[in-house]
Amino acid sequence: MPHCGLEYSIKSGVFECEKGHLLDAKYKKIPSRALKELFYSRRNPQGSIFNESGVWRFRELLNFCQIDTGNAEECAKHLVSLDGAEGRQSKPYHMSKVANFVGLKNENLSLQPEGYNPSGSFKDNGMSAAVTHAKLVGAKKIVCASTGNTSASAGMYAANENIECDVFIPLGQIAPGKLSQAYQFGTQIIEVEGNFDDAFAKSLEVAKKFGGYTVNSINPFRIEGQKTILYRALENLDWEAPDWIVYPGGALGNTSSCGKSLMELYEWKWIKKIPRIAVVNAEGANTLYDLYNGKFEETELKWNAGKPNTELIKKYYSYLDEKKIRPKTKATAIQIGRPSNILKAIRALEFTNGVVTQVSDEEMLDGMSIVGLNGFDCEMASGSVPAGIKKLIKEEIIKKDDVVIGILTGRQKDAMLPVDYHNNPNNLFAIPPKK
Ligand code: F0G
After folding, report:
1. Which pLDDT score is estimated for 4?
2. Atom of ligand 1 nearest to the CA of 410
C-alpha cells in the first residue's frame, strides 16, 4: 500500500515495499463467523494461557504464523505471551462521571482501559504479536524508539523470551515510570538528544546498519496484535458496531490497526455497519489534525483511493523544520511530529468516514482526572479521549444519541502529574489536600 500491488513472504522480515510504503499482513481465507462463539467460550480458558490472553483468544484472526490454532503445542512453540496476561483484563466499561462530563447517556459511552495490561499500556497487544514474528524470523535482538510505553512493553517481552532489546529514547522527554521500566527489564537504553522523531530516525538507521528487528508500529505484526483491542470492545457489544471509536493519535498505529480490522470485519460480513473513527491529537503535536483538515496550504490530506498526496506531507515536514516547530505537549506519550503510520491512518479515516480533532493539555488533564474519579487509572495521553469526545459532542459531530467507545491507552506512569493537578484548586476536578 498504496496500490503498488507488491507482495512479500511472511518470513521475509521486511516491513516496507521497495517503493517505501508500509506493508500489511494479508490472509487468504475468510474466517467463519462461527468463530465468534469459539472466542466467547475461551473466556473460560480451560487451562490454556492462549485462551486466557485477550490477544491470542482471537488467534484465528491473526494467524500469520499459519499454525494449527487448536494445537496446544504449536501455540506454545510459536505464540509469545506473558502467561496469558496481555489483553486479559481489558474490556469496555461504562463510567458514569465521564459520560456526564462529556454529555452522553451512561449506557451510550464505553471506555476500555488498556492500562491494565502487564506492562501498563495497550502496547502489549501488538508487542506480543510482533515478538512472535521476531521469533518466527529468528531475530536475536529487537529494537525500538519510544516515548516510553513501547520500550516498557518491548523490554518486558524481550526479557521473558530471553532476547536482546535496544531502546532509543528522547532524552528528558519520557515519563519517569516508563524509563524505569525499560531499565528494570534490562533493555539497553540509547539516549538521543532531540525528540521522539529524532530517536525513531536514529533507531531505524542503527537497526539497518547493525541488524535488529524493529518493533515500532511500522511493524505490520504490531498492527495485527492491536486489532484485538477492537475485537474485545466489539465482542462486548455482541459484535454490533458502535457509531464511534475514539483513540488518541500519536504515531497512529492504533488508528491504522482499528481501520484494518474494521475493513476486514466488514469484508467478512462480521459487522454490518462501519463505525466512524475519531482521532484526538494534542494541540502541540497535531500533524494529522493539520493535514487531514486542510489547515496546511488549504489542502486536505486524503487517502484518495490509494493515491494520497504524499508531497503535501513532505512539504509540511519541511515547513516544520524551517520554522523550527517541534511537537510540544505534557502528554509525552503522543509528543510526535512525524507519525510513521500516517498513510495507513488516512486509509482508515477514509474507510470509516473518520474525523480528527485536537485538545489542549488542560483538557487532557481534566479528561485523565475524570476517569480517575470513576475508579480507573489512565495517563494524560489517554485523557485526550474523554476530552476529544466532549469537544466533538459540543461541535455536534458526535450526536447525543450516538454509541461511543473510547480507548484509554495507558496507565499513569508520571506519578507527579495527578499530584500537581489536585494541588492546584483552579483545576476543574481538583481535590486539594487538607492541612
Ligand atoms: N497513548 C499512549 C499511552 C501511548 O503510549 C501512545 C504511543 C499513544 C497513545 C499513541 O498511539 O502511536 O498508536 O497513535 N506511544 C508510543 C510509544 C509512541 O513509544 O510508547 P499511536
Report:
1. 79
2. 3
Set of cell numbers at residue 273: 455497519
Q: Note the Cα 175 to chain centre separation in Å.
A: 18
Q: DSSP E strands: which ranges in 14-130?
A: 109-113
pLDDT lower than 50: segments of the chain = none
Entry field: residues in the chain: 435
Per DSSP, the three-state class of 422 is helix
Cβ atoms of residues 378 and 408 within 8 Å: yes
Q: Fill in the amino acid letter for 71.
A: N
Task: Give the sheet arrangement for strand 213-214, strand by strand.
Answer: 188-192, 164-170, 141-145, 213-214
Where does ligand 1 bind, in terms of residues with CB under 6 Å? 121, 146-150, 217, 248-254, 333-334, 379, 381-382, 409-410
SS3 101: helix
Distance CA 375, CA 373 (A): 5
Do residues 147 and 201 make contact, with C-beta atoms less than 8 angstroms apart?
no
Cα separation, 279 vs 352, whole angstroms: 12
| CA-257 nearest atom, ligand 1 | 13
- What's the CA gap between 203 and 431, in Å, rounded? 42
What stretches of 192-292 show up as alpha helix (H) in DSSP? 196-210, 220-236, 253-267, 287-292
Whether the bond between 170 and the residue before it is cis, its omega within 30 degrees of 0, is no
Distance (Å, rounded) from C-alpha 421 to C-alpha 176? 17
144 and 155 in contact (C-beta within 8 Å)? no
Helix, strand, coil shares of the chain, percent, nearest 5, are 45, 10, 45
In the three-class reduction of DSSP (H, G, I as helix; E, B as strand; rest coil), residue 245 is classed as strand
Ligand 1 midpoint to CA 413 (Å): 13
Distance from Cα 405 to the centre of ligand 1, integer Å? 18
pLDDT of 159 reads 98
Which three three-digit cell numbers place residue 403?
Answer: 454509541
Question: What values do phi and psi take at 378, rounded to 5?
Answer: -150, 165
Residue 301 in grid coordinates? 490530506
Distance, in Å, from the CA atom of 320 to the CA atom of 395, rounded to the nearest integer, reads 29
Give the number of other Cβ atoms within 10 Å of residue 207's Cβ. 21
